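Regression test case RT-17, inverse folding.

Input:
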C-alpha cells in the first residue's frame, strides 16, 4: 500500500504543446495538476507574432511581450543582454543583415506551460526562403529557448536564448 501511495502521490500532470498537438507528460513531484490548454495557445500566438514582427523589422512588435528585466543569450556578440534596453539594441545589429520579408520561420515548436511560468523550445529558419520555398544560400537554422512568466493575464518573455549547432 505504501509503495502505491508513494508512486502516485508525487505526480504532476502538465501539457506540452508540440506543433499543434497536446501531449500529456508526467513530471513527478506534488499533487495531480492539469494545465489549461489556452496557455499553450496564447504562448504559441505570442511567439508567432514575435517571429512575424522580426520578418517585418517591426521593433515595437518584437518588444511587445518582453519583460523589462529580460535576459537574452545570443549567437553574435554581445552574448548576453540584460534588460529591455540592451535587448532592443541587439536588433539594431541584426536588421542590417536581415532584409524585411526574409525568412524568420518557426519550423518546430514545443511549449510547456504551468499556471504562471512556461518555456518554449523551437527550431527557426533565418535569412533564406520561407518554409514553403526552397532554402537559399545564406540561410541557416537556429535553436530558440524562451522562458515566460504570467503577469496578470499576459505572458511576458523573461528569458530568450538563441544558439546554432557547432560546425566542428
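Golden output:
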Amino acid at each position: 500500500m505504501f509503495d502505491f501511495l508513494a508512486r502516485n502521490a508525487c505526480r504532476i500532470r502538465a501539457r506540452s504543446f508540440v506543433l499543434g498537438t497536446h501531449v500529456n507528460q508526467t513530471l513527478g513531484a506534488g499533487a495531480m495538476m492539469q494545465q489549461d490548454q489556452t496557455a499553450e495557445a496564447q504562448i504559441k500566438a505570442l511567439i508567432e507574432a514575435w517571429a512575424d514582427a522580426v520578418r517585418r523589422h517591426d521593433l515595437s512588435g518584437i518588444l511587445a511581450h518582453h519583460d523589462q528585466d529580460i535576459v537574452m543569450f545570443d549567437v553574435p556578440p554581445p552574448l548576453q543582454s540584460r534588460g529591455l534596453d540592451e535587448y532592443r539594441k541587439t536588433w539594431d545589429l541584426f536588421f542590417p543583415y536581415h532584409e524585411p520579408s526574409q525568412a524568420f520561420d518557426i519550423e518546430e515548436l514545443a511549449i510547456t506551460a504551468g499556471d504562471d511560468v512556461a518555456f518554449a523550445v523551437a527550431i527557426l529558419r533565418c535569412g533564406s526562403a520561407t518554409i514553403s520555398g526552397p532554402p537559399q544560400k545564406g540561410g541557416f537554422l537556429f535553436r530558440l529557448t524562451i522562458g515566460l512568466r504570467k503577469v496578470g493575464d499576459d505572458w511576458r518573455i523573461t528569458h530568450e536564448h538563441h544558439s546554432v549547432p557547432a560546425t566542428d
